[in-house]
Amino acid sequence: MPPTKAKSAPKTQDKLAKLGLRTDMDLVLHLPMRYEDETEIVPVREACLRGGYTSQVEGVVIKTEIAYRPRRQLLVTISDDTGELQLRFMNFYGSQVKQMAEGTRVRARGELKHGFFGAEMVHPTYKIVNEGAPLPTALTPVYPAGEGLSQTILRRAISDAMKRVDWTDTLPLPMRARLGLTDFEPAIKLLHYPPQNVDPYELTERTHPAWVRMKFDELLAQQLSLKRAQKDRRTKGAPVLGAIGSLSERFLAALPFTLTDAQDRVLREIRADLRNPFPMQRLLQGDVGSGKTVVAALAAAQAIDSGYQAALMAPTEILADQHFRKIAAWMEPLGVRVAWLTGSLKKREKTMATEMVESGEAQLVIGTHALIQDTVNFANLGLVIVDEQHRFGVGQRLTLRNKGSAGLVPHQLMMSATPIPRTLAMTYYADLEVSVIDELPPGRSPIVTRVVDQNRREEVIERVHAAVLEGRQAYWVCPLIEESEALQLQTATDTHLTLQEALPDLNVGLVHGRLKPQEKQEVMDAFASGLVHVLVATTVIEVGVDVPNASLMVIEHAERFGLSQLHQLRGRVGRGSAASVCLLMYQGPLGPVAKQRLATMRETQDGFEIARRDLEIRGPGEFLGARQSGQAMLRFADLETDQWLVEKARDTAAALLQAGDERTVDAHLARWLGGREEFLKV
């Protein structure tokens, strides 16, 4: 049955649409975020004795005045048989003054406080009532609302929609019984209109059986959509990259190190996927410094051996440049033509690069977002590698994937040094195969992490000086100040000057986002070659920088960084054999979240453990980065507390698809995603 459009006045319809409420079922599934208890009236005297609690009172207006204390405000005094109470409104309309005329009966709900002028409620919700007006018998829902949408409008729209929707349960009765799920219609009705006897704790904590049904349905829709996307992908054609030929063999033989067992295992998984006639969609996870780049380069070698081109796209020019230098140094001596393509190239260089890509002369293309421009056409793209994939939007990844030729979809390998916790991977990446490099190459030194108060800056500078005199190099990272890039730049510039003055015998370099790519590269090259002893940097060095001699990192205002960013930054040291240290300088007092983050960094270097704690602190929204621009986030389920439901939903989705129960699958997806399924397929 097609979804029925929400029926409201055109202007209201537009406001509802902004909240994503276009159909009656959208409205029905717009569930309350909390409830207000308007089922009882508390006498004014009792409410005053309660003080500090939210209560509902009813009384007759005995005085209305506009006062200036010091700003203009409306003061309304109401009275019942037990006492008097003042209602105070800082913002009000002229119509409210008339509405609250003496003798009017008002029902008001709010937090009661004892102010300078006695007991009062500031900005209570209120309504004008007649004596003996009936009280609601259910808790009053409070809905997430948008601009210009009052609770009254939302409640009416949802109530009307509930009279029109098809209540047929999308899950068969035997399945509901087996999973212990309540029926859909009574669950929804209870959540919109909870009776007085419902346990308020179960409602607010979302553990009530009605909430469990909603969470399960939402998770099941997501799992079905992703698994169906995975199934659909297998019907699309992709180039068969079956050859592991001369280039792959010579590449492996020329490497100055042996692959770890984990790299070897992951490479076998990727090689098997590339031989399939349908597109690979694999996420390659590995902690900072685990050796993802060499695995990606070997995958590219397999594409080239098979007569196809490979492309590697990175989110920043510094990271793309690191990949280019490293991979070109491996590949070019073996006769591979590697093209470099970024936005900062001069017009002539860009034209030459795009011509090499279009003619097929360039077998491997490395660059930034410039790869997805309309002017870039590939001769026969067989493999797309996207590094730090969460930093790209869905649309950007899709554009690169669509650069294949002859109706074939290129294979896609996504890399991430931000490990994704198991629950998150299971929920949001159910359409991907996941490979994990879970060991570091031998010879990597452990990193000692210390948390240091900002007041000990002089000691820290002395520590840097001593490390350089021992033949080491150091990073000094300046804070990310979101409010202003100019402020961040100022901080980096000031720190650079301070360190130059404090360490006159050392060469202190500076790199930040405002430098031209060439200037940035010159400083980075000087640091890599040892000419620069201390590199002051903003977070442009977060990923991709590899200087084995750098064994000390100072992160200033560490309390301002997220966990994943601190972990990424710390991964720039410990790349050689020398013992490495990361000093997290903070400015107190610290809030609880900052304390948790710094404690986590001190306690563990395990990227997966850090990611798990990060998910606990932040929730999934931020964690998924740009991916969420193409994917509706979970509204009701919580990945930390509802992991058991995620597993049930995953298994149920697999069973439904395996049984070929398309009718149930279609009905469930139509109810929960209503045409938004396309977003989940990238």
TrEMBL record:
EC identifiers of the protein: 5.6.2.4
Top-level class of the enzyme under EC nomenclature: isomerase
Ranges for domain Helicase C-terminal: 460-616
InterPro entries attached to this UniProt entry: ATP-dep_DNA_helicase_RecG (IPR004609), DEAD/DEAH_box_helicase_dom (IPR011545), Helicase_ATP-bd (IPR014001), Helicase_C-like (IPR001650), NA-bd_OB-fold (IPR012340), P-loop_NTPase (IPR027417), RecG/Mfd (IPR047112), RecG_dom3_C (IPR045562)
Residue ranges of every copy of the Helicase ATP-binding domain listed in the record: 273-437
A GO BP entry: DNA recombination
SMART domains listed in its UniProt record: DEXDc, HELICc
Swiss-Prot/TrEMBL catalytic activity: Couples ATP hydrolysis with the unwinding of duplex DNA by translocating in the 3'-5' direction; ATP + H2O = ADP + phosphate + H(+)
Entries under Pfam families matching the protein: DEAD, Helicase_C, RecG_dom3_C, RecG_wedge
One MF term in the entry's GO annotations: DNA binding
Annotated keywords: ATP-binding, DNA damage, DNA recombination, DNA repair, DNA-binding, Helicase, Hydrolase, Isomerase, Nucleotide-binding
Domain of life per record: Bacteria
Homology family: Belongs to the helicase family. RecG subfamily.
PANTHER family attached to this UniProt entry: ATP-DEPENDENT DNA HELICASE HOMOLOG RECG, CHLOROPLASTIC
Protein name per its UniProtKB record: ATP-dependent DNA helicase RecG
Native species: Zemynaea arenosa
